[in-house]
């Protein structure tokens, strides 16, 4: 179990911090193993001074885009370790300038050689990934540069309070509401021509989910109206099926993010049950759903990989997806 990973977007800052700490620890160990008493967190300041020479603390803070106290803390550590020298400014004795020490200049060639290897190693990791993390970080930082995080949080909080949704396990009193919503989307939006009787996982929800030890969650608005559903069926001890993921049109997308909320609940339960796979089928015409599933790690598979006890809808052109847990 990895709680921080399982928490997804909620723990984004913690996950980035954990990743940073993990990499910085390894890099610092490499420095020490190479006979250099250098800490990875000192790199930005050291690199700046090695390339541009003496700098004032305020100027350094602006260039590195970190706080003034943060620069002072780094400077104290590096000066104590003998890597930099702090001097009073000739024009203003209250201001201090930082520059590399003789020790720093003597070790610079070895450090630069190591940086080349660090750069190539990081580039290899990025090339081996499906997404370019540097581009993603650049986009994220650009967004934060142009949008105040606290202001956005309070706006989101207000919107979510106004559109409050409760997600809970299905109760049979919601049978008609779920049935009506699902059929209206299937037939009203996508012209699939389906009936509840043709769908064992819809016609009698209590019998298919509650009575068989499966799971169906319903999303309810303030009026206790069903606005979304998602189901999880156990095929065997290792395989499960995502079923009946539907959301009313007016509750899709941002700012509620109801689809992701529902999926995250299902994913948490699937991991708790120690399933190794989640399968699903979806009509060819539901393109937005395809993008959602693919964004969450599902991959297309052929029908011959579907277990014999998987109930597939008849008379509909489908895509089959699988998520490996």
Would you write up a description of this structure?
The chain is an alpha+beta fold and 325 residues long. The chain is elongated. It folds into two domains: 3-132, Winged helix-like DNA-binding domain superfamily/Winged helix DNA-binding domain (Arc Repressor Mutant, subunit A, Orthogonal Bundle), CATH 1.10.10; 164-324, 3-Layer(aba) Sandwich (Aminopeptidase). It contains 13 helices and ten strands. The longest helix has 26 residues, at 102-127. The N and C termini lie close together (11 Å). The mean pLDDT is 91. The protein has a seven-stranded mixed beta sheet with strand order 4-5-6-7-8-10-9, with helices on both faces. It has a three-stranded antiparallel beta sheet with strand order 1-3-2.
